């Protein structure tokens, strides 16, 4: 309901013609949910969002969705990411992408510059650029 109210406001009060959504962690799971329920969204990016498990229709995305994961995420196993990819290949009819960033942990793309390790910085910057590029492609 909240998403519907926000989308209505953006369309009616702000003149938005297309809207995308980005979410991190729990918000990434919310993006996955929104991509299953809100056809008016143009695109979404889920960054290390827990994979929805309580719905048999969790692979029937309505909108282009980009899933970003870290290889060493302690909350989402690589097996879960692999299963998501297999099921999306089987059931999804819209554009989607799954990308796993080597050596990265949960929350890696949100780090402040002073918290970035030199070896991780290129992956953080790549994930941020990939996220923006996906939204620009569809919105």
From TrEMBL:
One of its GO terms (cellular component) is cytosol. It is found in: Cytoplasm, Cytosol. Signal peptide: none annotated. Residues 3-137 form the Dienelactone hydrolase domain. GO terms for molecular function: hydrolase activity. Its main location: cytoplasm. InterPro entries: AB_hydrolase_fold, CMBL, Dienelactn_hydro. Gene3D superfamilies: alpha/beta hydrolase. Belongs to the dienelactone hydrolase family. This is Carboxymethylenebutenolidase homolog. It comes from Todus mexicanus.
């Amino acid at each position: 309901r909240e998403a519907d109210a926000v989308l209505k406001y953006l369309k009616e009060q702000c003149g938005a013609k297309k809207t995308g959504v980005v979410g991190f962690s729990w918000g990434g799971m919310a993006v996955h949910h929104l991509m299953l329920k809100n056809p008016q969204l143009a695109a979404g990016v889920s960054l290390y969002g827990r994979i929805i498990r309580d719905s048999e229709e969790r692979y029937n995305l309505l909108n282009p969705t980009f899933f970003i994961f870290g290889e060493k995420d302690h909350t989402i196993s690589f097996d879960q990411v692999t299963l998501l990819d297999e099921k999306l290949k089987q059931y999804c009819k819209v554009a989607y992408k799954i990308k796993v960033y080597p050596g990265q942990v949960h929350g890696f793309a949100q780090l402040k510059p002073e918290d970035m390790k030199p070896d991780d910085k290129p992956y953080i910057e790549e994930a941020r650029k990939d996220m923006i590029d996906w939204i620009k492609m569809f919105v």
